[in-house]
User: Which sequence fits this backbone?
């Protein structure tokens, strides 16, 4: 049956053992819980500096269970470190509570253009990790956003590394070449 809510395209997923591939949709926020009785959602925005939710007309809603759908943004307002969002088709608190854990995504084309030497974290996932000699150490599994520092997570020498994304440890990011160069791993051995 037609719910009147348009479906959306699924994101391109890739295994971290594969070479990087273009990601068609980008995760920008997650639904934390319902807010109020009308069906508003309290969402955690993955990039707190971004105003994208306030500039867009529509987002893709990817619930933990069920099909993805495109929703119109009817209202967005800052609420502390989070955003209160009203989406089309979400009527009442029960409907909103059922969306807890859902991801909000946007087409990559919706993201602002980047300057030279800038990149989105999602573009680092799957890149090969190399040392200064060019030796392959692994692939970036994900970027972890800690309160004090962002880290590249990768597997090397039978352990998981969390490399701070600081000049001291991240020598180079080459998106075209599909790799990052890391240094001073010995300083992180005992961490």
Assistant:
């Amino acid at each position: 049956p037609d719910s009147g809510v348009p479906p959306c395209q699924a994101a391109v997923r890739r295994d971290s053992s594969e070479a990087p591939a273009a990601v068609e949709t980008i995760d920008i926020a997650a639904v934390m819980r319902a807010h109020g009785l009308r069906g508003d959602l309290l969402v955690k925005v993955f990039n707190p500096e971004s105003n994208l939710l306030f500039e867009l007309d529509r987002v893709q809603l990817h619930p933990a269970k069920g099909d993805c759908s495109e929703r119109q943004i009817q209202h967005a307002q800052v609420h502390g470190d989070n955003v209160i969002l009203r989406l089309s088709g979400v009527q009442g608190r029960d409907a909103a509570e059922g969306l807890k854990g859902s991801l909000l995504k946007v087409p990559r084309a919706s993201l602002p253009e980047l300057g030279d030497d800038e990149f989105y974290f999602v573009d680092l996932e799957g890149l090969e990790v190399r040392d200064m000699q060019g030796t392959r150490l692994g692939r970036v599994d994900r970027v972890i956003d800690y309160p004090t520092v962002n880290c590249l997570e990768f597997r090397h020498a039978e352990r998981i590394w969390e490399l701070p994304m600081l000049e001291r440890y991240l020598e180079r990011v080459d998106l075209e070449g599909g790799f990052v160069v890391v240094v001073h791993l010995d300083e992180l051995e005992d961490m």
